[in-house]
Write a structure and sequence with these properties.
alpha+beta; 2 domains; four-stranded antiparallel β-sheet; 5 helices
């Protein structure tokens, strides 16, 4: 990366199709739904050369959080063990939890905020959010802040 590189945050619906397809290939590979680049590009309808040309030039917004401190906010149902499931999920991703705050449940729902370091994580933040969102009792999960 040169010192004059510029980065922009752009909505995906205005990007040329090739960039959207490169991201689709990356998602297939990261999720394990495709076992190889060949399989992923075939499923998406993209050439291998286009994938390799652009793969290092586009990344999901949350991937820029690698090596930073991220705060997630998670709305959870109030039942025993849900917080331990979330902590286990973060630990499996090798996130280093710095703080946890759980609010008092209101109408059966509580907000949990988790601040963590991401520099040693073995998966992207968006994949971690997806994994946490699949835990029974988790109603929503999103990034609140990042440093």
């Amino acid at each position: 990366m040169s010192s004059n590189d510029e980065y922009y945050l752009v909505k995906s619906d205005i990007l040329p199709d090739v960039f959207v397809k490169v991201m689709a290939v990356k998602r297939l590979l990261n999720s394990g739904k495709a076992n190889s680049v060949n399989e992923a590009v075939r499923n998406v309808g993209l050439s291998r050369s286009a994938y390799y040309k652009y793969k290092d030039s586009i990344m999901p917004f949350y991937e820029t959080s690698k090596g930073k401190i991220v705060t997630m906010i998670i709305a959870v149902e109030n039942f025993p063990g849900i917080l331990s499931g979330i902590i286990r999920c973060v630990a499996n991703a090798k996130g280093n939890i710095l703080t946890i705050n759980q609010n008092i449940p209101i109408n059966g729902l509580a907000d949990v905020s988790i601040s963590m370091e991401t520099d040693r994580m073995n998966r992207s933040i968006d994949l971690l959010l997806s994994d946490v969102g699949k835990i029974p009792g988790v109603r929503s999960c999103r990034i609140l802040a990042r440093e």
